[in-house]
Amino acid sequence: YVNASTESLSISVKPSDSGSGVKAVSGDYGEKVTETNGTYTISLNVAALKDEKIPSTGTITVEVIDNVGKTGYATVQYEKDTVLPTVAITSHSNGDIVNKTITLKGSTTESQGLAKVEIFAVDTSDTLLETFEGNAGFNWSYEKIDTTKIYNGTGTKDLPIKVVATDNAGNKSKAQEIKLKIDQKLLLSLRFLQEV
Question: Whole-prediction pTM value?
C-alpha cells in the first residue's frame, strides 16, 4: 500500500542469468533503475499516482533482458490507500474523574490493514504509554495507568490522553483526545469514614 504523501515506491530484484548475463532491467512507467552488486532497485515516482497518470491500483511489471535479447518478467501489485483510519476511546469521556489504576479501552476502524495504535500522555513532548501492533489495535485495552504515580495529592490534576492509529499505507488517523481529571480525594474520604 502507498498513500497520498508517499513520495516513492521502491522494488528490489536480483535477476540471474547463467548464460549471457543480465543486460538491462526496466519497469512499466519509466522508473529510475539503479544497480548495486547485482541487485536492481526500481523507484516509482508516486507523485504520478496523485496525478492519476498511473492507475491507483494495479501491477508494476519488471522486465529483465539478457545479453542475447531474451526477456523475463516479475510483477508486484500495489494499491493506493488515502483513507484515514479512525480510532475511538470507548471506556472514558472527556472530563471523567479517575483515581487509582484505570483501564483505557477503545476501538479502531480500518479496511486495508492496521499497522499500529499508539496511546500517549499529552505533555510538552507526548509520552508514549503503549503501542498495539497489527490486529491487536482493532479492539485495544490498556490496563497500566496508575494515576497515583501521576498525582496523589488532595487536589485535582488533568490527565490528557491522545490515541493515534496508523494503517499499513502510513495514513494516520485524526488523534482522539480526551482530558481526564485525577481526583484522589474520594479515596481519602472513604478511608477516613472506614477508620471512624
Answer: 0.68
